[in-house]
Design a protein that fits this description.
Length: 191
């Protein structure tokens, strides 16, 4: 429940800069789920996403004077950038995980009982997204999964809108090719 519904994020941040812990708790309550969702889409790990969001909010509290409203960025745009940078740093440090040993290729002609359910399809799509270059992953996550406007997503990533649109197009093209190749080759994954 939002304890300060009458205050926008920037007003809450001014309260936080003054050391108001209740305003901080209200800001966390207001946005934690949104930022967790973004972190999860970039990390594909519940625990890592939770850790990143917790660390980002802890950093915000410890360095609450670092946000400057005069720089013109909305809190959410600025904080998305914080979350994104923490996720990208985390992914650079993390070793890639091999495919699960339980994932065996199978022939699509084995029968209708092996059709993938929606969760399995999403898992395969997530795997393909995870294999995209990080800026393409980021563009897809912000625009499609988080519903952020192209303008704001471009600001978060630090690029122009045309460059963002190019990243999205390349990502969509790559995903389409991989999905078509998977269905053309006849191999799917079994749990």
């Amino acid at each position: 429940m939002d304890r300060f519904p009458q205050l926008d994020d920037e007003a809450l941040l001014r309260q936080i800069q003054g050391g108001n812990q209740e305003a901080f708790a209200a800001l966390v309550d207001r946005h934690a789920r949104r930022f967790y969702s973004s972190a999860y889409r970039l990390l594909f790990s519940k625990n890592d996403a939770e850790d990143i969001v917790q660390q980002a909010f802890l950093n915000l509290w410890e360095r609450r004077q670092s946000w400057d409203q005069n720089k013109g960025a909305k809190f959410t745009t600025w904080f998305y950038r914080v979350i994104v940078n923490l996720c990208l740093d985390h992914n650079r440090k993390k070793k890639p995980m091999p495919l699960s040993k339980n994932m065996e290729p199978i022939d699509k002609h084995d029968g209708p009982d092996i059709l993938l359910d929606e969760k399995q399809k999403q898992a395969i799509l997530d795997l393909f997204i995870k294999e995209l270059p990080e800026r393409q992953q980021l563009a897809l996550t912000l625009c499609f999964y988080e519903g952020i406007s192209n303008q704001e997503a471009a600001e978060i990533i630090g690029i122009k809108v045309k460059a963002l649109q190019s990243l999205i197009m390349r990502a969509k093209t790559t995903l389409k090719e991989r999905l078509n190749h998977r269905s053309d080759s006849g191999s799917m994954f079994r749990r």
